[in-house]
Every structure is written in structure tokens, then in C-alpha cells.
Design a protein that fits this description.
The structure is a single chain. The protein has 135 residues and is α+β, with helices and mostly antiparallel strands. It is built from two helices and six strands, in the order αββαββββ. It has a six-stranded antiparallel beta sheet.
Length: 135
């Protein structure tokens, strides 16, 4: 990735992120932004799968939470909820995770997923626990 707002990220080869086509474009403790194609991430009726929006939301919030956690610590998701406002049938969606609470042991992000026209598709909230990383 060449975006200067993205720190060095681990490889996504062979991960759910790779299979779903998620691309991270910005990451900080306060905010993370990424995109995901609708194609390949739909339910049988051709609409963006609600679970796909959830995966995008958890991915973005988790990346931001890991930056907040810092070296020697890990962020693990403990709760995700999502409200689906409208459907998307084509193009891509963009998710923006914004910090709501940045604590020592718990962090919470609101994630807004929008279609290419800037219409809100989903609003999610992710809470992660920050723990000591194990070697």
C-alpha cells in the first residue's frame, strides 16, 4: 500500500480480508477507513450481505484498536452490533471507524458503512478488549 496514512500492516494473504477484497486506506487509533467490493459479498438475492458489512466493521475497528493498544498488547473483539439501513447491489462500500472510547482495557468504535453515493448502508459498533500479547 502506498497511502501515507497507513502504517505497515501485516500480510492479508489467505485471510478473510483477502477473500472479501477489503482494502485499508487509513489507520490511526482514532480512525480507520477501508473499502470492500459488493460483488462477491452478496446474499443470494444480489444484495450486500449484512455479515459482509459486519466483517468490514470489525476489521476496521480492530485495526484502529490495535494501533491504540500499541506494542506488546493486542486488541480482541468482544462485541459487535450492526443496524442495516439500506441495501447495496453494485460498486463498493466504504467503512469509516471512529473512536468513541479509547480506554486502557476497552476501546469502542462506531463504524459507518456507505455506498458510492455516500448513502449510509450500515451503522455498527465494535468494542475490543486490550490485553497483553502472548509471544
Amino acid at each position: 500500500m502506498t497511502d501515507t496514512n497507513v502504517p505497515a500492516l501485516p500480510s492479508t494473504a489467505g485471510t478473510l480480508m483477502e477473500r472479501m477484497g477489503i482494502a485499508i486506506t487509513e489507520v490511526s487509533a482514532e480512525r480507520a477507513v477501508g473499502t470492500m467490493p459488493v460483488a462477491g459479498n452478496t446474499q443470494p438475492f444480489g444484495l450486500l450481505h449484512g455479515g459482509a458489512s459486519g466483517v468490514l466493521a470489525e476489521t476496521l475497528g480492530s485495526y484502529a484498536a490495535q494501533v491504540h493498544a500499541g506494542p506488546g498488547r493486542a486488541a480482541v473483539g468482544v462485541e459487535l452490533n450492526a443496524t442495516h439501513h439500506r441495501s447495496a447491489r453494485s460498486g463498493s462500500v466504504t467503512g469509516t471507524a471512529t473512536a468513541v472510547h479509547l480506554g486502557r482495557t476497552l476501546v469502542t468504535y462506531q463504524v459507518v458503512v456507505e455506498d458510492e453515493d455516500g448513502r449510509r448502508v450500515c451503522t455498527a459498533r465494535l468494542t475490543c478488549m486490550v490485553i497483553d500479547a502472548t509471544p
